[in-house]
Amino acid sequence: ATAEKGGYDHFMLKEIHEQPKAYRDTMGSRINADGSKIVLDEIRMTEDQIRSIRNIHVVACGTAYHAGLVGKSVIERLARVPVEADVASEYRYRSPIITKDTLVVVVSQSGETADTLAALREAKRQGARVLAITNVVGSSVAREADDVIITWAGPEIAVASTKAYTSQLIAFYLFGLYLAEVLGTIEAADLRKTIAALQELPEQVENILQQSAKMESFAKQIAAHNSLFFIGRGLDFAIAQEGSLKLKEISYIHSEAYAAGELKHGTLALIEEGVPVIALAAQEELLEKTLSNIKEVKARGAYVIGIGLEGNEELSEFVDAAIYLPRTLSLLTPALSVIPLQLLAYYASLAKGNDVDKPRNLAKSVTVE
Ligand code: G6P
């Protein structure tokens, strides 16, 4: 059994370590040889059709939805098209405003999730064009969408999604840049710079994986607690939500993700001596604001683990323990900052003696409503 796990104890750990390859494979030939252009030959939408897009709805479930939250920011920032992100089970029943100029992007590792598939069908019925981001060639979602971007993460076995999620992030970066190129919302120099930064990500992920022992020791500390918080702003908040879900899924520790600036409107009441708070502080332009939120929880006795960027080591003065990520563009930090959180969830689950790859009550793919 360890053989099929490539020498790792669990599929999840193997899949976490496969991420540098998954990033490379998903980028693959979708970046031209001199790094100046995104090549998405699989997109059949014409440039005119792209220019007629008025709004984008990203629809997915679970971890794929969290990739959609990052995708929303990525597309809005790069292509300046308004994007909404919804969980599929809500989207289907909330009478979303869909027109023929709406692009619906469904995100699904398996391509078989019932709610996501139903949302896709409803969107098509109402005349929208549908783009699928999926990991399974020939899946229902891939077959029924108008356009498909395959994430080349390879088969994902562990119920808790890791490499499929980060490959979805890469797909959103590629698609966002592609839209920006067509719509003329990015300068050639910025495009090159972003592509170069994307290409550095796999090695940077390797660097973070080398810090696994640190995450293992943090995980042992939090495993004794029954509730904790993840906080962050902007893209860090999207990652906080994914980190919280990952931890809940496999460690069964209750946790909540909070927009750091929103703490004072309620959640701060739950912070007392020793409550662990994982603070994401990788959005440099929001760093000062996040540091002030960290001070708020520290003042109430929280035990804070900070996640920041190399070069911003002043974070250590505000937190109890910190981990630093290699520097990248703000927009790309999610592809790095989620890695320590995956490791944290993995080691917390392990510390609690849980079945890491097959958590109780959960299925890899939910094909019924
Ligand atoms: C299940 C899995 C999650 C996954 C979600 C959506 O709940 O346990 O890991 O994120 O379904 O799955 P999909 O295959 O559509 O990405």
TrEMBL record:
<keyword id="KW-0315">Glutamine amidotransferase</keyword>
<keyword id="KW-0677">Repeat</keyword>
<keyword id="KW-0963">Cytoplasm</keyword>
<protein>
    <recommendedName>
        <fullName>Glutamine--fructose-6-phosphate aminotransferase [isomerizing]</fullName>
        <ecNumber>2.6.1.16</ecNumber>
    </recommendedName>
</protein>
<feature type="domain" description="SIS">
    <location>
        <begin position="218"/>
        <end position="359"/>
    </location>
</feature>
<comment type="subunit">
    <text>Homodimer.</text>
</comment>
<keyword id="KW-0032">Aminotransferase</keyword>
<feature type="active site" description="For Fru-6P isomerization activity">
    <location>
        <position position="364"/>
    </location>
</feature>
<feature type="domain" description="SIS">
    <location>
        <begin position="46"/>
        <end position="185"/>
    </location>
</feature>
<dbReference type="GO" id="GO:0004360">
    <property type="term" value="F:glutamine-fructose-6-phosphate transaminase (isomerizing) activity"/>
</dbReference>
<keyword id="KW-0808">Transferase</keyword>
<comment type="function">
    <text>Catalyzes the first step in hexosamine metabolism, converting fructose-6P into glucosamine-6P using glutamine as a nitrogen source.</text>
</comment>
